[in-house]
Structures
1.
Amino acid sequence: MSAPAIGIVGRKRERAIVGRLIAAVVPLALAPRDARAVLLMLTSFETFDALAGEDRAIAAVAPVVQRLAEAALRHGDGPVAP
């Protein structure tokens, strides 16, 4: 399988996982499309790398990312229509 094909499969799998995570949070404070974008951004390598810096392990940063994701998905005045 070529590198571009692997990338496409990886992104589809990633989107499916994110979709299941979004479905578990009800009600959402964001539209589903925005929630997917937020989760993909928060769980990116760049986010973990920036939070970990030079001296923190990924395991130490993961709970921070989890709290950020939950706050982002649940924050707001109420559910948003899809």
Note: The CA atoms of residues 45 and 61 lie 12 Å apart.
2.
Amino acid sequence: MADEYLALLRGPWASPATLPAEPPILFDPPILLRGAHTMNDTTADTAYQVVLNDEEQYSVWPVGRPLPAGWRAEGTVGGRQACLDHIETVWTDLRPLSARA
């Protein structure tokens, strides 16, 4: 992990001796921008959709918010918990599609 962190820094000042034992966790707590919405926006009236990627990994995403690259809507829309319950039912093999034999 430290080698990957060091490669990201790519500078003469970056040596294993000057790096912390663990790389910092970026955006924890989330950086909030004025007018921006985060995935932590969970109000009773927020509608979510179930999304999945090409590796058949599932997630929930707010309806009306542009999907990230590589993700598509699965078709289920509802409250956050309802979407999570649906995912628990349909996502029975958590391995990425490419890792399944």
Note: Residues 53 and 71 are 4 Å apart (CA to CA).
3.
Amino acid sequence: MAVLGESETDSEKALQVLRAFSEQGVLLLQPSHWLAEVAAVVTRLNHHLFDTLYHAVTLSSPEIRLVTADERYYKKAALEGQIIRLSEIELTEGS
């Protein structure tokens, strides 16, 4: 497991989310048009590839949300929709 630095303010929350996913299983989907959507989001937001790649996949399906700890990206991408800050995630008991 990677060691998170002190600057990672939401590291405990990220680990809780990771545990919840690994214990409950997650279905991962990749739409056929994901590369075109990635290019569109990169162009619109003028941001590096990784954040926009994940967000583009998220935008391909209305029931999906991107969870990010990157405040700079969140501020750029919030108007695109389907994004939430890691710090805003509320886990219920057993999740």
Note: The beta strands are 66-68, 83-85.
